[in-house]
C-alpha cells in the first residue's frame, strides 16, 4: 500500500468524520435508490454509485482521467460507497487534488487477528516494475519542466529496458516480447492512456498516487543494485523488486 496515511496536506482523504463537505446539491446522487434494478434487489445505491463501487473493487484505482463517470458518482456522495467498502474490510482513499481514488485493506485497531480479505499480494515482475519506474520518472520530469501532461513512446520504453538487459541475453525477439507483455500489463491498470496498440501513450496523473516519490526513490535504489548485481543474469538470480504501492494489492478473482 501507500507509504503514509491520507492527509489533507497532500489533498488525500480517508473517508470518515474528517472528510470535507463537498457541498453537493445533486439530489439524485445524494439520495439512495429505492428502485430495484433486478428481482429481489434490496440494494441502497443508485446505479451510477454501484458501478463506481464495482470499479473500485475490481481496479487498483479509479480517476477522473480514466473513469470519468465512476469518479463523478463517487465524489458526488462518497460516504455510501465508503460504507460498503468498510463492510468488506476496505478503506476508501480519495485524492481530490489529483482526482484519484483507491481502496486499501483495513487493519484492526491495536493489532490482533487480521480481517478477512478479498485481496492477494501481487509482486510485480522485473520488466513490469522497470516500466512503472520509467513512467514515474518521465512523469516527474515533465511536471518539473512545467508541462501539464506527460507522454511515453513505446519505443522509448523498449530502449529504457534495454539498458538493464544482461549481456548474456541474446534472444532479442524474446526480450521484445517480454517488454510488450509488460507494457500490456501496465496498460491494463489504466496508467497508460490511449489505444492498446498505440505507439505513444499519455501517462495517467494517477501514477503520482500509485507511486509516490518515496516509492520512486526505493525503486531507483533497487534498480541500481539489481543492475550492478553480477548474479542478475537471469530471472532466477535477479533481485526481487520492492513492492510498487497500490498496484501490489489486487482483487482475489483477478485473472493475473
What is the residue-averaged pLDDT? 79
Order of helices and strands: EHHEHHEEEHEHHEEHHE
Q: Tell me the count of domains.
A: 2
Low-confidence stretches: 1-9, 17-33, 230-237, 250-256
Oligomer: single chain
Secondary structure tally, helices: 9
Can you offer a commentary on this structure?
This protein has helices at 27-30, 47-58, 68-76, 78-87, 126-144, 154-162, 172-189, 207-210, 213-227, and strands spanning 12-14, 62-63, 90-95, 100-105, 119-121, 151-153, 192-193, 200-203, 249-251. Mean pLDDT is 79; it is low at 1-9, 17-33, 230-237 and 250-256. The strands form 3 sheets. Strands 1-3-4-2 form a 4-stranded antiparallel sheet. The protein folds into 2 domains: 8-117, no CATH class; 126-251, Arc Repressor Mutant, subunit A, CATH 1.10.10. The protein is of the alpha+beta class. Strand 7 and strand 8 form a beta hairpin.
Features:
256 residues; Arc Repressor Mutant, subunit A; 2 domains; 12% strand
Write the layout of secondary structure elements.
Layout: E1 12-14, H1 27-30, H2 47-58, E2 62-63, H3 68-76, H4 78-87, E3 90-95, E4 100-105, E5 119-121, H5 126-144, E6 151-153, H6 154-162, H7 172-189, E7 192-193, E8 200-203, H8 207-210, H9 213-227, E9 249-251
Antiparallel strand pairs: 1-3, 2-4, 3-4, 5-9, 6-8, 7-8
Amino acid at each position: 500500500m501507500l507509504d503514509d496515511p491520507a492527509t489533507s496536506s497532500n489533498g488525500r482523504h480517508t473517508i470518515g468524520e474528517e472528510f470535507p463537505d463537498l457541498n453537493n446539491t445533486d439530489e439524485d446522487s445524494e439520495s439512495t435508490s429505492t428502485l430495484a434494478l433486478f428481482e429481489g434487489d434490496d440494494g441502497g445505491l443508485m446505479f451510477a454509485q454501484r458501478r463506481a463501487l464495482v470499479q473500485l473493487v475490481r481496479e487498483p484505482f479509479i480517476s477522473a482521467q480514466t473513469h470519468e463517470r465512476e469518479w463523478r458518482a463517487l465524489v458526488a456522495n462518497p460516504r455510501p460507497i465508503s460504507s460498503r467498502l468498510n463492510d468488506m474490510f476496505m478503506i476508501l482513499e480519495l485524492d481530490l487534488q489529483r482526482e484519484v481514488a483507491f481502496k486499501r485493506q483495513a487493519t484492526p485497531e491495536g493489532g490482533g487477528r487480521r480481517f478477512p480479505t478479498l485481496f492477494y499480494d501481487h509482486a510485480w515482475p522485473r520488466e513490469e516494475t522497470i516500466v512503472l519506474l520509467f513512467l514515474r520518472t518521465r512523469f516527474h520530469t515533465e511536471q518539473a519542466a512545467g508541462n501539464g501532461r506527460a507522454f511515453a513512446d513505446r519505443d522509448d520504453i523498449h530502449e529504457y529496458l534495454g539498458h538493464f538487459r544482461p549481456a548474456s541475453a541474446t534472444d532479442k525477439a524474446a526480450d521484445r516480447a517480454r517488454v510488450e507483455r509488460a507494457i500490456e500489463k501496465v496498460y491494463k491498470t489504466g496508467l497508460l492512456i490511449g489505444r492498446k496498440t498505440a505507439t505513444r501513450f499519455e501517462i495517467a496523473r494517477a501514477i503520482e498516487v500509485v507511486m509516490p516519490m518515496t516509492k520512486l526513490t526505493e525503486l531507483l535504489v533497487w534498480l541500481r543494485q539489481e543492475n550492478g548485481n553480477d548474479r542478475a543474469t537471469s530471472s532466477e538470480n535477479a533481485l526481487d523488486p520492492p513492492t510498487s504501492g497500490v498496484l501490489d494489492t489486487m482483487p482475489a478473482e483477478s485473472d493475473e
